[in-house]
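Render this sequence as a predicted structure.
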Amino acid sequence: MTALMGLGVVTAGTTALSTQVAAAAPAPIKVGVICSCTGAAGEAETLVTNGYLAWVKATNASGGIAGHKIDLINENDQTNPGLAVTEAHTLVSDGVVAVEVSSLVQQAFLSVLASAKVPVVGESFGIPGLPQNTDVFDPTDTLSTLVANASQVDLIKAAKVHKVADLYEAQTGSTSLSQLEAAINATPGLKLVYSVATSLTQTNYESECLAAQQAGATGLIAGTGTPANIEATASSCSLQGYHPAYFAGTENWGAFPALAKNTWMSGETVPYFYTKSPAIKKYRSLMDKYYPGQFKNPTFDPGNSLGIYAGGLLLHDALIKGGLTSGSKATAAMVLKGLYRLKGDTLGGLAPPLTFKKGTDHAINCWFESRWHNGRPELVHGGKAVCVNGAS
């Protein structure tokens, strides 16, 4: 009887100790995601967002950030601007410290987050100019217009193309088009000879390809939307016997024969296929672990997925620089403070040096260039980042 009582005392003591340890566990870090995971590009956005989810799972599996696990609140705006605004307000009310964005309607809600001083860290498709929001990892919309146009012009020059056509998705807008046209036409030896708006619901681009070919374009900016849209563009051109150099995002072009012949890309991260980089090897390892087979999905856009994953790395570094410890609580203000303390952070070699300044657009003035040529990926400029405006 004594032995049993003693065992009971030990068990009770262990239970009490476990309760105390649980009570002392660091508070979770609330982070939001707003994704257009249903709608015209729903599957593509879902697959892209998995890059961030892989980072969250890996971070929690390794003990969190300074002992704090990540509590992810994942919202699907269904590509509905009104719903997206509601979800943004909900995330602010829930006390998230940062938001990751993979939304096609973010222009509707980014001001909500800016007003609440909740930073958008590593978003996929940014809109520059919103205060206290950090638009970081995408080769097109995330960049300032100046840098986006500079990267496009640099790629066209590297491909030795002199006449170029632009097939763009209608949501891009005429202002962006006119600025790009001006940048191309202002460059000696380059001329934009044809441009046309397209729709995300399009599956055939033969008439646009024919018009570009007749205009004499030997290069084509494929900005028609999702990977499926862009591959359909290249397939349509091939049916016309038209094989220009393509300029597009860092998509999974290895799965697309028409694009794998000659596609030029720019991105704010080291290309996903450059596995000599330890940072890229880790990203791919985590994706294969948590989402096996995703790289074989033709709808998967690894360039944007990598950018969103990199947003997680940036959030980690910002929280550490902001002073997060096991005994403190993560806040949006802490994330912002940490972001502005970063000096030349490359996220472990994944990105060009990142430094953010208050009161300015947080566009990254450097990018990496690569291409698919005859079915094989290649780095341009020896894999070194290209920069403008004195950035390094």
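Summary. Confidence is low (pLDDT under 50) at residues 1-11, 128-143. The first strand starts at residue 29 and ends at 35.
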